[in-house]
Amino acid sequence: MFGLERRLKKTEISAIDRKKIGTGSEVEVSRVKLRYKEFDKKIEGLVLKKLHGSEKQPDWAECQMQDILRQWKFIKRAVRRRKKEGLSHFLLPGTIRGYREGNEQGILMTDLTEGGSNQIYDLKEISIGYYDIDQATWIKIREQIERDIQMASEEKINLAGGPYPLDPWLIVIKDNEPQVYLVDIGGYTSVNVSEYTVKRSTLKLRRALEKMDADMQF
What we know:
The chain is an alpha+beta fold. It folds into 2 domains: 109 residues, Phosphorylase Kinase, domain 1 (2-Layer Sandwich), CATH 3.30.200; 98 residues. It is 37% helix and 30% strand. It contains 5 helices and 10 strands; from the N terminus they run αβββαβββααββββα. It has a 5-stranded antiparallel β-sheet. It has a 3-stranded antiparallel β-sheet with strand order 6-8-9. The longest helix has 27 residues.
């Protein structure tokens, strides 16, 4: 998908054939196809996270989008460096880029469901019984979250700024194995933060994970 990301930057695109699959405090999420305006070519396999209020407040949405992309740039750079050094790192969608058409702004990402063939779990909803997760699967999920919390701490990334500290992650079940992806970066997150903010964020994340672990009641 990295080749796709480079190609998308070279020409004007339009999100078409939208199918809404979710909504959050900051975005509306739709599975989309992209149409190259220059070549009239369609690309599948992406989701669009359209920023709320982008039509009515385009200047504000543009600033928000640029801040989100700035954070993603910092995170992707850290992931690339850690890969080269053989260190553990976040799993990220292959494509993460801005989208702008008229007064509409948002973030385009790889569709982690792969067109619906993979199951997607919202991490913060697992403990309330919304999904059927067995103990062995939960242990694998928890270990990956612990890995990401450690990376966030080492790279000075604050992921726990919102009301739900574990909100930035999605669980992808592929071939019956869970993979934890970092996907939600926005107004509640920040990068290159102070040591105090790092410690506070890490503590909130670990406490939230401990509470979820206790709530699973296997």
